[in-house]
């Protein structure tokens, strides 16, 4: 299958935590890719006296995992060590002025640029042995604000008041502003890629695209500069943040993913399980990439509902009954055949944003209970 495995690696790395009035969950999966190049970071309570700040980030590596792993370990340090950040993020009463916000944004930007400059000097990078790069999307959460910083095509979305309220913007070579910079640096955009090769126009690492003489770090073919956006927190209506790599966004829109998460929060409170279900659903929807998701749940999030749980159990029972009917009718039917047959049926209360794929695990479990001999046969999602 070329750059893909014969069957996906579906083991997940998951974690969860709490603090500063937040709950978070993380899940990641290698999927169909030959190696896992994603990395992530979740820190509640920052150093430098910023115990009431938190940091969450997703890094999507390409051409190897080294840069993404290094970013996950060191980006936060580079940000909080910036003088502009240190001097303006800490305030006695938790409040922060508009002028201080601008300095904090500058500190975040400087942290990205400093990290990118420092990574150039890693021995394996300097020698040219390692040519990897990574997108980066992060959210710094203060008592009163969200600071979003994005470099590449990983994405953060804020759900507020029952809808996807804010989203970072992906940095693609075909974006007019990005294309203009690439062409000014002597490059081209072909097949929607930088010089026909790289699918993102901003990234950390990727130093072979950062060698144009006489141009600064943010004027190269690929820029390490993050786009930074600030949103004031609204405790009553802010529901959750979700940060994910393009392996998730390739198959789910902002609205779809937010609807799916909102629905899951009415069924259960375990954020590891919810994040795992997001990854599974994206795999079932056809994602061929590594997948990582960080979910940060806020005060205004939906609560577990007995009514929603009841409807979900009824749906599961209806699906299991239908699977049994299909297996009884056709002894040779596969999981894909079952999914295709079910797609022509109408079921009430399918997961919003997830649809039938959001219930594939339930369908597979019912199928393999009836056909245990097929348990070890990979049944393609295609």
TrEMBL record:
Recorded source organism is Leptotrombidium deliense
- The annotated region (Disordered) lies at 1-21
How would you describe this protein's topology in the membrane? Answer: Lipid-anchor
Q: Where found, per UniProt? A: Cytoplasm, Cytosol; Membrane
* Top-level lineage group: Eukaryota
UniProt domain PPM-type phosphatase: residue ranges: 23-298
What CDD domains does the record point to?
Answer: PP2Cc
Compositional bias (Basic and acidic residues) spans? 1-14
Query: Which GO molecular function terms does the record list?
Result: magnesium ion binding; manganese ion binding; protein serine/threonine phosphatase activity
Q: Name one Pfam family in it.
A: PP2C
* Annotated SUPFAM superfamilies: PP2C-like, Protein serine/threonine phosphatase 2C, C-terminal domain
- InterPro entries per the record? PP2C, PP2C_BS, PP2C_C, PP2C_C_sf, PPM-type-like_dom_sf, PPM-type_phosphatase-like_dom
Key words, A-Z: Cytoplasm, Hydrolase, Lipoprotein, Magnesium, Manganese, Membrane, Metal-binding, Myristate, Phosphoprotein, Protein phosphatase
The identity of this protein, by name, is: Protein phosphatase 1B-like protein
């Amino acid at each position: 299958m070329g750059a893909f495995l014969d069957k996906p690696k579906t083991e997940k790395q998951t974690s969860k935590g709490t603090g500063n009035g937040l709950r978070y969950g993380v899940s990641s999966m290698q999927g169909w890719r030959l190696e896992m190049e994603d990395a992530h970071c979740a820190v509640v309570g920052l150093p430098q006296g910023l115990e009431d700040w938190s940091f969450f980030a997703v890094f999507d590596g390409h051409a190897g995992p080294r840069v993404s792993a290094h970013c996950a370990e060191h980006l936060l340090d580079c940000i909080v060590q910036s003088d502009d950040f240190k001097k303006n993020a800490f305030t006695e009463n938790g409040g922060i002025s508009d002028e201080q916000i601008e300095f904090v944004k500058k500190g975040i930007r400087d942290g990205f640029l400093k990290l990118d400059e420092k990574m150039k000097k890693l021995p394996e990078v300097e020698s040219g042995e390692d040519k990897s790069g990574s997108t980066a999307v992060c959210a710094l959460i203060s008592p009163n604000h969200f600071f979003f910083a994005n470099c590449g095509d990983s994405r953060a979305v804020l759900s507020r008041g029952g809808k996807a309220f804010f989203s970072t913007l992906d940095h693609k070579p075909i974006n007019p502003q990005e294309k203009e910079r690439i062409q000014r640096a002597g490059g081209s955009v072909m097949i929607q890629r930088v010089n026909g090769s790289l699918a993102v126009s901003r990234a950390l690492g990727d130093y072979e695209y950062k060698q144009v003489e006489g141009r600064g770090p943010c004027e190269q073919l690929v820029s390490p500069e993050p786009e930074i956006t600030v949103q004031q927190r609204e405790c009553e209506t802010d529901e959750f943040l979700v940060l994910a790599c393009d392996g998730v966004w390739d198959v789910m829109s902002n609205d779809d993913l937010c609807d799916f998460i909102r629905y899951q929060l009415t069924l259960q409170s375990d954020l590891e399980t919810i994040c795992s279900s997001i990854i599974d659903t994206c795999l079932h929807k056809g994602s061929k990439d590594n997948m990582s998701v960080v979910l940060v749940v806020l005060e205004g999030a939906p609560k577990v509902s007995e009514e929603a749980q009841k409807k979900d159990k009824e749906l599961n029972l209806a699906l299991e009954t239908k699977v049994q009917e299909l297996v009884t009718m056709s002894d040779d039917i596969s999981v894909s055949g079952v999914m295709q047959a079910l797609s022509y049926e109408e079921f009430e209360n399918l997961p919003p944003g997830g649809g039938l794929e959001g219930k594939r695990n339930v369908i597979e479990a019912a199928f393999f209970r009836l056909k245990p001999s097929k348990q070890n046969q990979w049944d393609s999602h295609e």
